[in-house]
Design goal:
- By secondary structure, the protein is of the alpha/beta class.
- The protein folds into two domains: 183 residues, Alpha/Beta hydrolase fold, catalytic domain (Rossmann fold); 65 residues, no CATH class.
- The protein contains eleven helices and nine strands.
- The protein has a seven-stranded mixed β-sheet with strand order 1-3-2-4-5-8-9, with helices on both faces.
- The longest helix has 15 residues.
- It is globular, with a radius of gyration of 18 Å.
């Protein structure tokens, strides 16, 4: 089992404060939460970290939802954090609700941002195709920047999130030891995460959640349909929902102030 030293992480806030943990989405990193975490560090001790295969954390052989949940448990055990409020976006949301399902005694409150429990092989194929459009490694960062500013959005012509995706992918580029620029994350691990995470029907886990939960949806999200959002809210009386307008899949990026307010209202309720 990995220990905390294998995860690039940041802890802010007073040690005596309640604990709050943020889990990023696929191809993301703990740094994605920097702006949001800053708003909570006065009231909480806040942990954000790069999950396995992401950012500057270790590369593993296995990338199942169960692996991610067990990583979080190992980290909390090492820190001595017995109970936390847990927030997860997209892949991190799936990992978060699975952790809450598996270890309900460790959760005070759960927040899931814009992810469906529905298996979705088509979405996994779509992401694989988009990653395949990127001719990494690039000779240098300048070439990578030019590609994501010009060629990548053209390849996604008609996708309303083309420029957002281009920016997101570019932030995942890093200079390599040989001077080239390529993916910051472990590409094989990302693909395995995507396929294994979207292959399983996780609706039963939602029905069996035993912790107060806030499920958030971006009003224009293509990742969590209005139908699936409604079903989530109908399955478990402990789950309440909020839809943020106007927003896509990255609510905490598209509407940070509304996201922070919704999160504060729920955590303080």
């Amino acid at each position: 089992m990995p220990d905390l030293s294998q995860f690039h992480h940041q802890i802010v806030g007073e040690a005596s404060s309640p604990k709050l943990v943020f889990l990023h989405g696929l191809m993301g990193s703990g740094g994605n939460w920097r702006r949001i975490a800053k708003s909570f560090q006065g009231a909480y001790q806040v942990l954000s970290f790069d999950q396995r295969g992401h950012g500057r954390s270790f590369h593993a052989e296995s990338y199942s939802v169960e692996d991610y949940a067990d990583d979080l448990k190992a980290i909390l055990d090492e820190l001595g954090w017995q109970k936390i409020c847990l927030v997860g976006h997209s892949m991190g949301g799936r990992n978060a609700f699975h952790f809450a399902y598996k270890y309900p005694e460790r959760i005070e409150k759960l927040v899931v941002e814009d992810i469906s429990p529905e298996p979705d092989a088509e979405s996994a194929d779509k992401i694989r195709r988009m990653v395949g459009l990127v001719p990494a490694p690039f000779s240098d960062r300048k070439q990578a920047k030019a590609f994501f500013e010009n060629e990548f959005p053209k390849a996604l012509l008609g996708n309303p999130q083309a420029n957002t995706l281009a920016d997101y992918f570019y932030t995942n580029m890093a200079e390599q030891p040989d001077g080239t620029t390529s993916w910051r994350f472990h590409l094989d691990g990302i693909l395995q995460t995507m396929e294994s995470g979207r292959a399983v029907d996780r609706w039963p886990e939602i029905e069996q959640l035993k912790v107060p939960t806030l499920w958030m949806r971006g009003s224009e999200s293509q990742d969590l349909s209005a139908e699936h959002f409604k079903r989530v809210l109908s399955l478990n009386s402990l789950i309440q929902g909020v839809e943020i307008e106007p927003s896509g899949h990255w609510i905490h990026f598209d509407q940070p102030e509304k996201f922070i307010q919704s999160l504060q209202d729920f955590l303080n309720s």
